[in-house]
Design a protein that fits this description.
0% strand, single chain, globular, 77 residues, binds zinc ion, little secondary structure
């Protein structure tokens, strides 16, 4: 069982509850590199820690990455 890199509890998918087991060394390293997204092997969605709800989506907190092509926030209504 691997621990969440953020809250150090056993890392379970927040969506399907499957324990995360890295299939490759790269995936294992991705757990500790907050700029590399990790997908759940059960539901194939972005892994979200069941306990602290932190997504392993490759986005480091709320920092701004100039190369990140994310959607801009919608302007009002
Ligand atoms: Zn966690
Ligand atoms: Zn899952």
């Amino acid at each position: 069982m691997f621990d969440c890199a953020y809250c150090e509890r056993p890392l379970l998918c927040g969506d399907c509850g499957v324990p995360f087991v890295p299939a490759t060394p790269e995936e294992y390293e991705a757990l500790f590199r907050r700029d590399v997204p990790v997908a759940c092997r059960g539901c194939r969605k972005v892994l979200v820690c069941r306990w602290c709800r932190t997504p392993y989506d490759g986005r480091e907190g709320d920092s701004d990455d100039p190369d990140d092509d994310s959607d801009p926030p919608e302007a009002g209504d």
